[in-house]
Specification:
By secondary structure, the protein is α+β, with helices and mostly antiparallel strands. The protein has one domain: 2-Layer Sandwich (Alpha-Beta Plaits). About 40% of the residues lie in helices and about 25% in strands. It is built from five helices and six strands. Strands 1, 2, 3, 4, 5 and 6 form a six-stranded mixed β-sheet that branches. Helix 4 runs antiparallel to helix 5. The structure holds flavin mononucleotide.
């Protein structure tokens, strides 16, 4: 690919098993995000994870080999199942350049937004859906904010 379409993007949706496996699902999601952020930062991957109504929707973007490597790890994760990967795509620039893994959780806004979106798109997963999903998640981040900043905050301030 030329320098103009250099960002490999993949998206999938899956069924979240965390709620049936874990008592403290909030803590488990937090752990998942911390793991994700660590590896994604190392591999130069950015993206976003939407968690809604028992399903995850995730968009990953970056170098093709790196994204496929992470996708392989994610596929084997027992915290979700019924993983449906959308056709991948090369795009000009990152949608989530600021986030190693932005997280959009359950909120009334997110629910409404997602429902309208699914109805509008009838959840037909084509390669353009990857772009649409990225746009949807970015909209949600703008509306309600993302939980995970791109740069890890210094946990210890030398105190
Ligand atoms: C829905 C979902 C999304 C995930 N997204 C990522 C991700 O973007 N990057 C990542 O490295 N791991 C992600 N993971 C976690 C990996 O499957 C794996 O558990 C983790 O990377 C292992 O980290 P560790 O080698 O530091 O223990 C995700 C897992 C789930 C269930």
């Amino acid at each position: 690919m030329g320098r103009f379409m250099s960002v490999f993007t993949i998206a999938y949706h899956s069924r979240n098993l965390i709620e049936e496996q874990t008592l403290d699902s909030t803590a488990e999601v937090q752990r998942l995000l911390e793991q994700s952020r660590a590896r994604n930062e190392r591999l130069g991957i950015t993206g976003a994870l939407l968690f809604n109504e028992g399903r995850f929707v995730q968009v990953l973007e970056g170098d093709e080999a790196a994204v496929l490597e992470v996708m392989d790890i994610i596929r084997r994760d027992p915290r979700h199942t019924d993983i449906d990967v959308l056709p991948s795509r090369y795009v000009r620039e990152r949608t989530f350049a600021q986030w190693s893994m932005a997280f959009v959780g359950v909120s009334p806004q997110a629910k409404n937004y997602y429902r309208d979106f699914s109805l509008r798109e009838k959840l037909e997963w084509t390669s353009s859906t990857t772009d649409l999903l990225a746009a949807l998640i970015l909209d949600l981040i703008m509306v309600q904010g993302a939980v995970v900043p791109r740069r890890p905050r210094a946990q210890h301030h030398g105190r």
